[in-house]
Structures are given as structure tokens and as C-alpha cells.
User: What shape does this take?
Amino acid sequence: MNSNKRTFITFLALVIAITLSACGSTEPADQSIVDDDSTAPVVVLADQNFTPESFINAGWKKSKEYDTATVRESTEIWYGFFQQKDIEIRFYASHEAAIEHGVPSAEESIEGAVKRSKGGELLDVSGGSFTGYADFLVAGNAVLLCEFDRTKCDVLVSTLK
Assistant: This one.
């Protein structure tokens, strides 16, 4: 390999390394809603119970109710919007039920959305659930499925009274 090619490859590798390090994640400003275990779901306000009205009062726009038959142990499921992002909220009888039944269901919904976005097998979404959810969080007895990332869900939850 001649000297010019070697210099170019070295330069290119350096540019890639600098670019990748500059794109690294930063710590979120509000550490109260971040769990230390990155594989664990984010859980906030565990001691509170919410209703659709709790979220409506915080600025969420309720749009459509889904049948709870497709989501085990849920008591209500609502699709809506907050700051121009889709947020589905699944309500459970208690925080414990949201953790035990809601977390696995949310993980399945997100996994299905990822498969669909990569051209994988299309799962049955006859329950009507939106297919663009990429993250979720648990707030008390509710599980919020968040479009693209958790940013807007974090903001919504931070405005609950």
C-alpha cells in the first residue's frame, strides 16, 4: 500500500473515531426518572394511581379507546397525543399489576414494532395498537408506550399533579 493510501485510511479512521465519540449519549437532566439498570423498565410515581383524566389534565389529548381483551389484565387502554407524539396509555388495577402484566406486554409491543420496521414478520395488531412505539415507562398503575423515544412520555409524566 502506498503512502498516500495509508495516510488517507489513517485520516478516515481518525474522523470516524471522532465522529462516533461526539455522538455518544449524555446523561439526562432529570435523574429521578432514570433507572440504574439500563435493561430494567423506567418506573416513576409507583405509589400513585392514575386515570385517563390525570393525563388529560397534564395535557395529553385522548383520542381512541382500545379493547382491553388484547392486553392481559389491563382495565383501560387509550391512544392519544402529547406534544405532537403518539402515546398509548394502558391502565391497570394497581402498580403491581402494571409491573407484572404491563411491562411484558409493552416489551412485546415494542419488539413487534421493531420487527415490523425492519421488514420482519407482521404480527397481529387487531387490538388496534399503533405500531411505532419504541420505548415505554411505568407511572404508578399506568404503562405509557412512547412514539420513537421516551422523551415526550417523560415530559408528560413530569407534569402530572
In short: Residues 46 and 61 are 23 Å apart (CA to CA). The first strand starts at residue 42 and ends at 44. Residues 41-158 form one domain. The chain has four helices and six strands.
